Amino acid sequence: MSPGREKRVGVLVQQEIASLLTHGLKDPRIGFVSVMHVRMSPDLRYANVYVSLLGDEKDRTSSLVALRNSAKWLRGQIGRRLRMRYAPEIRFFEDTSIDDAFRLEEIFREIHAEEDDEGEENAGD
């Protein structure tokens, strides 16, 4: 199967999951969730869904557990909506790339602040 098809189906699955999370799923444990990316297996049988979760650690864990518990329901809905021969098994993973980017940005700020402090000290000599 072509990699282009995997990406196209992944985008469709991502859109449907995002829609179902905002309009269809009524689990109070699920907080603010953004579907960041969906990676399909080459045979389209598995969909690895990467989500960004906001809140403290307890809320994030609760949201991820609730998403994983709702995976079968979401699979059925996606199968019906996309009319796929085989609805993909949905597996949720936390996407920490945004948190990583914020951490890196903070590290860069600290490095620049230290360089500025050293530059001021050397200029005074």
**The CATH homology group name of the largest domain:** K homology (KH) domain
The end-to-end span amounts to: 67 Å
Q: Give start-end ranges of low-pLDDT stretches.
A: none
- DSSP helical segment count: 4
Strand arrangement, major sheet:
1-2-3
The outline comes out as elongated
Number of domains: 2
Mean pLDDT equals 87
CATH class value of the largest domain: Alpha Beta
| Helical proportion, percent range | 55-70%
Taking all Cα atoms into account, the compactness measure Rg is 20 Å
**What structural class results from the helix and strand content?**
alpha+beta
Largest sheet: 3 strands, mixed
Tell me the β content: 15-25%
Number of strands: 3
Describe it for me?
The protein has 125 residues and is of the alpha+beta class. The chain is built from four helices and three strands, in the order H-E-E-H-H-E-H. The protein folds into two domains: 3-94, K homology (KH) domain (GMP Synthetase, Chain A, domain 3, 2-Layer Sandwich), CATH 3.30.300; 96-125. 58% of the residues lie in helices and 18% in strands. It has a three-stranded mixed sheet with strand order 1-2-3. The chain is elongated. The model has no long low-confidence stretch (mean pLDDT 87).
Brief write-up:
The protein is built from four helices and three strands.
